[in-house]
Task: inverse folding
């Protein structure tokens, strides 16, 4: 899909004015616009869910207020963003990107009430990072053995 790449360019790589436009869509309360806003973030840096935590939290809360389906779609789009990108590391050790995602997710989740939409998202992101670390270490062990 070319729209996320185009939006990355015209928003000057998700600068504050570019995010302000998306915020208007998010504040509209319209599920289509809220989901579209999360789709347009797909070309942001994977770390955006942490560096833009306030924006991410607002997006998740507004999506949850609209409907469970909207929250699931937005959460899925943000999860895809957060786990995208290349990973490189030393065989037998977890990828540094996964370790950072696990740790940052744990820290972010701790800032929100347990069970809240934002806490659930960051906690699921943490669990995904932990699974990725375990899977990668198991694959490395098989290859080295």
Result:
């Amino acid at each position: 899909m070319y729209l996320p790449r185009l939006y990355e360019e015209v928003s000057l790589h998700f600068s504050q004015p570019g995010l302000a436009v998306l915020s208007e869509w998010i504040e509209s309360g319209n599920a289509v616009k809220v989901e579209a806003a999360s789709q347009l973030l797909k070309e942001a840096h994977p770390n955006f869910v942490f560096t833009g935590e306030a924006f991410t939290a607002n997006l998740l809360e507004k999506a949850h207020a609209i409907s469970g389906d909207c929250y699931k779609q937005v959460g899925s789009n943000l999860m895809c963003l957060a786990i995208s990108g290349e990973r490189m590391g030393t065989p037998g050790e977890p990828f540094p990107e996964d370790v950072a995602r696990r740790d940052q997710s744990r820290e972010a989740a701790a800032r929100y009430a347990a069970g809240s939409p934002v806490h659930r998202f960051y906690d699921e992101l943490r669990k995904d990072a932990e699974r990725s670390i375990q899977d990668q270490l198991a694959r490395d062990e098989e290859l080295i053995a």
